[in-house]
Write a structure and sequence with these properties.
Blueprint lengths: L2 H25 L11 H18 L7 H26 L16 H9 L7 H23 L7 H25 L8
Helix pairs in contact: 1-5, 1-6, 2-3, 2-6, 3-4, 3-5, 3-6, 5-6
Length: 184
């Protein structure tokens, strides 16, 4: 396959996934039909992406929802830090978002210690359930592509999926913090 065709394929997959997840988020009122973004937050992902994927890939076979879902939590945490004091938090290493068990309980650490929600709180449970739904949708879309596992194409599709999940998480948190898209 020629590189332009591959890049078009990956871009189309990413855009289709982004639209589907945005639709789900809007339908469930986690977002308002707009993917809120910040160049700072996007840049953080670009710098952390390889480390995140290195942590997530070993989980793909046994815990596929975790492997993509934790990117959503990471996006939420980075957006929260961006709102609080980006000058301080922009240089926080990705590993600071780990839980006390490392990557495995990053979700609990972010929800409880960064977003400030008790883990058994209704809001935390609702969030967990919704992120699981986003992860299920994402894994389903990846599987629908019928790409041979453990190939370079599978790796690139996985990276694009994690990128979208991170962006969705960041947008959800920005929305929760009251940010809105306004035309100037």
């Amino acid at each position: 396959m020629n590189n332009d065709i591959i890049e078009d394929y990956l871009r189309n997959f990413e855009e289709g996934l982004r639209k589907e997840l945005l639709r789900l988020c809007s339908q469930e009122q986690w977002l308002d039909k707009t993917l809120l973004e910040s160049e700072d937050i996007t840049r953080y992902w670009e710098e952390a992406e390889d480390k995140y994927v290195a942590d997530a890939v070993p989980n793909v076979q046994q815990y596929p929802l975790v492997s993509v879902g934790w990117a959503t939590y990471l996006g939420m945490a980075v957006a929260y830090c961006w709102d609080v004091d980006w000058k301080t938090y922009q240089h926080v290493p990705y590993e600071q978002f780990y839980g006390d068990e490392g990557f495995d309980n990053m979700d609990d650490h972010i929800v409880r210690d960064i977003l400030g929600l008790p883990l058994e709180d209704n809001d935390a449970l609702r969030l967990r359930k919704f992120i699981q739904r986003l992860a299920q949708t994402t894994v389903s879309k990846i599987r629908h592509e019928q790409i041979e596992p453990s190939t370079p194409m599978a790796y690139h599709i996985f990276m694009r999926a994690c990128k979208v999940m991170f962006a969705i998480g960041a947008a959800m948190e920005l929305h929760a913090l009251g940010y809105k898209f306004e035309k100037i």
